[in-house]
Amino acid sequence: MSKAPVDAVSLGIMWDRLIAITDEILTAIVRTAFSVGVREAWDLACVMFDAKGRSIAQASLSMPAFIGTAPLTMRHMLARYPIESLRPGDVLVTNDPWLGTGHTPDICVARPVFRDGKVVGFVMTITHLPDIGGAGLAIGNPDLYHEGLILPVCKLVEGGTFNPLLRDILASNVRVVDEVFGDIDANVAGTEVGARLVGEFMDEYGIDELQPLADAIIAQSEGAMRRELAAIPDGTYRREMAIESVTEALDLACSVTVKGDRIALDFAGTGPSAPVAINVPFCYTRSFASYAVKCLTTPSIPNNDGTLQPISISAPEGCILAATKPSPTGGRHTVGWFIVPLVMSCLADVLPGRVQADSGMATLMLVTARRSDGREMATQYFLAGGLGAMDGHDGRAAVPFPTNNAVVPSEVWERETGMRVLYRRMLPDTGGPGQFRGGTGQEAALVNQSGMPVDVSIFGLRTKFPARGFLGGAPGAAREFAINGTAIPPKGRHTLAQGDTLTIREAGGGGYGDPKLRSVEAVAADVAAGAVSVAGAQSDYGITIDAATGLGTRA
Amino acid sequence: MDWRVGIDIGGTFTDFAALDPRSGRLVVHKQLTTPHEPSAAVIAGLPVLMQKAGTEIGEVGTIVHGTTLVTNALIERRGAKTAMICTEGFADVLDIAKERRYDMYDLRISYPEPLIERAMRIEVSERIGPSGEVVEALDRGQVRERLQRLAQVREIEAVAVCLLNAYVDDTHERDVAAIVAEVLPDVSISRSADIFPFMREYERWTTTTMNAFTQPMLSRYLDRLEAGLGELGFAGGLFIMTSSGGTVTVATARRYPVRLLESGPAAGVHFAARLGETSGIADLLAYDMGGTTAKGALVRDMTPLHRYEMEVARVHEFKLGSGLPAKIPVIDLIEIGAGGGSLAEIDARGVVKVGPRSAGADPGPVCYGLGGSAPTLTDANLSLGYLSADFFLGGEMVLDGGAATEAIGREIAAPLDVDALRAAWGIHETINEDVARAFRNHASERGFDYRRSTMVAFGGSGPIHALRVAHKLLVPRVVFPAGAGVASAIGMLISPLSFEVLRSDLVELEALQPAAIDQGFAKLVDEAADAFSGTDVRRTDLTVVRALDMRYRGQGYDIEVTMPADLAGAALIEALPRLFADAYEGVFSKSFPERPIDIVAWKATVSGPRPTDSTDFAFDRGAADQARKGVRAAYFPDAGGFVETPVYDRLALKPGDSFAGPALVEERESTCVIGVGDRVEIDGHGNLIASIAAAEGTLAA
Fold this sequence. Notes:
The complex is a heterodimer of chains A (555) and B (701).
Chain A: H1 8-32, H2 36-39, E1 44-50, E2 55-58, H3 64-80, E3 91-94, E4 106-115, E5 118-128, E6 154-158, E7 161-162, H4 164-173, H5 177-205, H6 211-230, E8 235-244, E9 249-259, E10 262-266, H7 282-297, H8 305-308, E11 311-314, H9 333-336, H10 339-346, E12 362-370, E13 376-384, H11 410-417, E14 419-426, E15 442-448, E16 454-459, E17 480-483, E18 486-487, E19 491-496, E20 501-505, H12 520-529, H13 534-541, E21 543-545, E22 552-554
Parallel strand pairs in A: 10-11
Antiparallel strand pairs in A: 1-2, 1-5, 3-4, 3-6, 4-5, 6-7, 8-9, 9-10, 12-13, 12-16, 14-15, 15-20, 16-19, 17-18, 17-20, 21-22
Chain B: E1 3-9, E2 13-20, E3 25-32, H1 38-53, E4 60-66, H2 69-76, E5 82-87, H3 93-96, E6 121-124, E7 127-128, E8 134-136, H4 140-153, E9 158-162, H5 171-183, E10 188-191, H6 192-195, H7 201-232, E11 237-241, E12 247-249, H8 250-255, H9 263-279, E13 284-289, E14 294-300, E15 303-304, E16 306-307, E17 310-312, E18 324-326, E19 330-331, E20 334-336, E21 342-346, E22 352-358, H10 377-383, H11 401-416, H12 420-445, E23 454-458, H13 462-473, E24 477-480, H14 487-493, E25 498-508, H15 514-530, E26 543-552, E27 559-562, H16 569-588, E28 597-607, E29 618-619, E30 628-636, E31 641-649, E32 658-660, E33 663-666, E34 671-674, E35 679-682, E36 688-691, H17 695-700
Helix pairs in contact in B: 1-7, 2-7, 4-5, 9-14, 10-11, 10-12, 11-12, 12-13, 15-16
């Protein structure tokens, strides 16, 4: 039975079961992990591999960035520990940014799944640890060695026993030992749950190896991806894009070559690594590049080795998208996020119905203070700009992209920090005008009423280079930061004294298509909804809104 | 006046159940739902039920009613013209929402529109701080002036009052409500601190807008229903089912319509839990599958798991995060887009996918012969011989098996290059996997070990799939209760009056004084007890369950801890660290005795006496005395394919009867499919108990 080819009926049922197993592992980790990042922001992933180390299933709610890096991590692990060197009860680990996910806090944990003494596959989980030592996540870290402890690929657990030396080293290097071990143990236990569930699945269906199923999953997915790629006209499509480093501009470049049923993305022309912690190891670049291709071609097909096969990705070593050791990488997302819109823009002319104009993205702010009773306050504030527009689809206001953090309600924020939220408002006219409008940004004003100085460390972007519009659409408005009305640098640390007001104006998404083609009714509805002002309707769309009726007329 | 009646309005049928608690006799009836005027089916069906029961409406002391009216009004956006009054600077909270994508790959992501359009939102100057202090006094003149100005240009039927931090101190909200009542005496008013006094403005305010939006309409409906029942001669008490599995008075329902969301499924779970109690089953999975959706719930220690948030009016019906959040006490339901009408198709991967799209009742499955051409789960179950073409709904509807198999062959089997039977099995088994997956994930998130539990299966389609699902979950036993076809209506008539009051109030445990904890709970209990005014329940008959949400300071995760009934004051405070640690270990398998603890929220549930002590009901039986009514070819892959399978009449089976699968047990509304080697026994309560073949060894070990 096990050697029988997998027919389409069994394939669907068993494929979904493997995905269900990864989903269950993920929920088991979320339940048992200790850090808020894992439990509230779902900053984690689970991927299953066949015995050859090819990915075959992933948990549905995994972080997209990790889905893309996990297959490479598995390859590095197997290079260090070939399959014949693995024993039941072994668990491998690494957090090396170049082997893992691009920065040190993410820990990758993998367990071989044994059946009758043979490895039939692997289960890998990845979570963002609450601390890994060093100077923490800070934009100013000058090199990798400030960014904490690095574990090379090694056996975290050997034959069921946690390596005591490794445990001591970890415990000696991190700040919040309970939380860190809580999360590491949750990963180890999660992979154990996974190994058990795979065994039960094989029992139920009477199969003794996963290979025929894995082959069928990969072949079916690869076929679907290739059919989509073949439908894209052959050619090389190149775009460049300026983004901001800390103070100066940084160029990103991408050439996308579609040939038959293959696609190649090359980032030659991209600027050099920076002396601050925004450098991107290539694994992270590869991950977001394939994420962009996936969104454009086969968004509803689960990721696996098959969907990645026809995609090749390259970048010259030493550029900021293929940074070399020991470049600091803690804030690699502030550059890496831009890969997605860059790839989209390359393909805008050939896939006009699928691409999304640039999004306003989001602001992540680390907030720290020492309370009068000596207790530390350390928390995050998060605010999202508008999504980019698409053909037939306006961008949504205030939604993060390509990341997906969760909002902090004003009531929770005020209670936790003693800072008052003066207002949270949609910003009219910040969404890029277009036949389809970019998502509007928002403005928040926070007053420090806590009675103590509060430090804010901001990873701000899109302050000089706003979200681009596509196919005739106009750009969204740029992001702005100010303290007491005076503009401040977008990346860096600032101290808010008692009574100081920090104002954040989030960037709008880019528009899609010529604004002149936007219907009068749509613009009138925008005005009613607060997305466009009466003046904006006039200047951006050439439409006059009647104050009494709310109806519009185009000149 | 002893009879109790439960009436559950569903999408297709309005179900009735009547119980005479003296004899335990239970009579059921089904009537087609009248969507345009739901009370019409109630008024038309009640006399029929009385006739079947051989009694009259004057003998009915209590009617418990569940309605989907509130849910439907939110989905279809048919509600009152509603305005919102909120704190200056926060009118856009409804648009900004949660700032989160619920699908990582769908770039065309869309979200539900807020219930209140922007022009109907009024901002007013005021501010309460996070500790309840007045940061800025309420500008009353401004409230009056802005409301009057809006009322001059727009019709206003309801007002939602939503102020920041009102969950700590609602003085300003009360003041605003008083001004609204003065300026617009006829509108209904909902205040956020009254509807759900919890931290997190978006969720609390959205819930408040739902309450305001549905209040006038529900109130008119209840007027009509009360009048109609009165004309029939009903002189007893009318109670309304809520989402948490309890009932409330009509007055409470009018005040909190948002608490009526999903009351039907909640009643079904309540029935399953009480059935477990009667049968000595502490932990169970309730599995209810009908025509368009399946619902599941976990029952631990005879109590259904509950939570305080659900989603309404989703853009994608089964995608979490695509709807509007309603913060209410609710039974913790699993929703799965799987039912008899679920459409089978080939997805982008080139494999079989079933649901969540449904053929609904019109055109329905191909085999109904009402014009449907796309194959559904029911078509597959008919092709596999699980359903009888001649005994669907007791023979009221004849199914076209040939057309079902032909459609499966054309739409699924041919493109996949397999035969129609294999494709039908694939459709059936895909649903089994989907349901098993949903249970696994739900149980895993909650640390619930389903392997030691029992499944209780009901609904029109649940009993067809239950044993295969149980098999996948390694759940050793499945109970098919008598009366499964009207489980929600039965659940309603056995539900006690119950009301839950909760409040966010952050307190550091080490600073908590004995008097404060007692007063804190007493205030909640008093408030909850108010919901019983106008009933004949005495204060001394009320059961109180107190609970606290607690967490380690600095952590984001709250754990609900139930207070032992016999502890109060200093003794209770002393016990809290241990109680919290035990509850924490139950979820996370460890605890941290040294860490300081915060109390985050306070809860009290107050319930009246239970109407019945057991679910040991006597159903009216059919005339047949021969339980085995024949054989039919049905598909069992473990037995090698189609096998001649014995068919039993559920109503003719007697306590003590037992047999092994494969077998089919039919009743009017559903069929239990018993797999190869599974064993069935009828227990003393008339329930059909099946033990899973493969798990028997495991159980014994």
